[in-house]
Amino acid sequence: MAELPDMGNPQVREYYDRGYFMADDAVEPQMLARIDAALRRCVAKVRSGAVVDDMEAIGVDGPGSEATHICGLMAPEFGEGVFSEYLVSEPLHRYIRPFFGDRLRLGWVACFAVEEQRYEIGWHRDVGHEERDGSYEVEMEILQRYRKHQIKWHLPLVDDACLWYIPGSQRRYRTEAEREVLINDPAGEIDGAVQLEVKRGQTLFYNGNGIHKGVRPDGMAERLTLTGSLIRHREGDQERLDERYRWRLVDHVRPTLPPKMQEYYDNWRDAVRL
Question: For the chain, which has fewer Cβ within 10 Å, the N-terminal or C-terminal residue?
Answer without folding.
Answer: C
